[in-house]
Amino acid sequence: MARSLSSTPKGDQPRIPMPTADPTLNLTPSTWKVLTDSIFPSAKTAEGILLAVHYCAARNLDIMKRPVHVVPMYSKAQGREIETVWPGIAELQTTAARTGQWAGIDPPRFGPIEERTFRGRLKRDGTWQDLESTVAFPEWCEVTVYRLVGGERCAFTEPVFWLEAYARFGGAYSELPADMWLKRPRGQLMKCAKAASLRAAFPEEATYTAEEMEGRVIEADAGVTGPNPPASHRSSPSAGPSAAAPTAPVATTPPSADSNAQADAAATATASASMALDPAMQDRIDRVIARAGENAAWPQAEQYLRERCTGAALDYALTTLSQAQTETASRQAA
User: Fold this and answer.
1) Compositional bias (Polar residues) at which positions (predicted)?
2) What pLDDT does 238 receive?
3) Whole-number Å distance between alpha carbons of 120 and 43
4) Both 97 and 190 in a single domain?
5) Closest by CA position to 47, among listed 81, 77, 76
6) Residue 189 contacts residue 165 (beta carbons within 8 Å)
7) How far is CA 72 from CA 48, 83, 191, in A?
8) For a designed S-S bond to 138, which of 70, 110, 207, 247 qualifies (C-beta 3.0 to 4.6 A apart)?
9) Range of the domain at 42
10) pLDDT (tens digit, 9 = 90+) per residue, 11-67?
11) CB neighbourhood size of 146 (10 A)
12) Is there a single domain that holds both residue 119 and residue 231?
């Protein structure tokens, strides 16, 4: 028989006092101590841990295997940090496997290594400190997940870019990477790439993971914030071939007939190439280019597309990328 909490020796008391919980959860004092001290050692509130317990009970998950994480997030509506619960990558894989349609996963593929120095000013122990961190990270990662669709093994791949995905130390307005992203820049990005592809393959089952939500801000009216701001506004790239290329010069005089003809030709080439493409491939290329525009990562996107595309797909990708880069430069100069 489990001892009551009141009779537990002081040295055996849990880190967070055990609250009154739903009897159907079958929480005992000893189980609660394990949850507070071992499973969720960084959780600050009983409410956060109870939320994780309820999540696992609803999903029929063994909480002792740590399938979910308590993630602190700043709430703009409440003006303070609150604790939320998000699944880990293992829980997404478990959920996919339970469908009976998961047909395997490929090893991760990483982009070239880039090194950058991130700087920020954070408050520690009541005083503001200027901090600096240098990290070498892969520019992107992708993992292919397979699902049986109509009896056929179909591949789902979603590339994820490090500068978009990394968690920031100090919240949405800091550029400093969180500790785990400094220690495991490849491993954390791989988890995010797995999660993105699992969501593409199992949209009705998979959700965002703790690795993806760490460091995000809950907006007052619009839910959770989206990707990090463009890297050009957050960090100072180190010198070398990985640094972002300067924006192409834009003419200040009205376009000539020749330039209009070139634009028309480029649009025609893009349209012709897209007609020969599989819609899924075209959509994937368009997403990569859109992300490149958001982060001024044109050289990285071009390298990625050259490595992954051939034939008509490569023609479409390079033409569309060039057109998007020109349009972005024009908007910035306007």
Assistant:
1) 1-10
2) 31
3) 25
4) yes
5) 81
6) yes
7) 9, 4, 19
8) 110
9) 1-66
10) 678 999 998 878 888 899 999 999 999 999 999 999 999 999 999 999 899 999 999
11) 18
12) yes
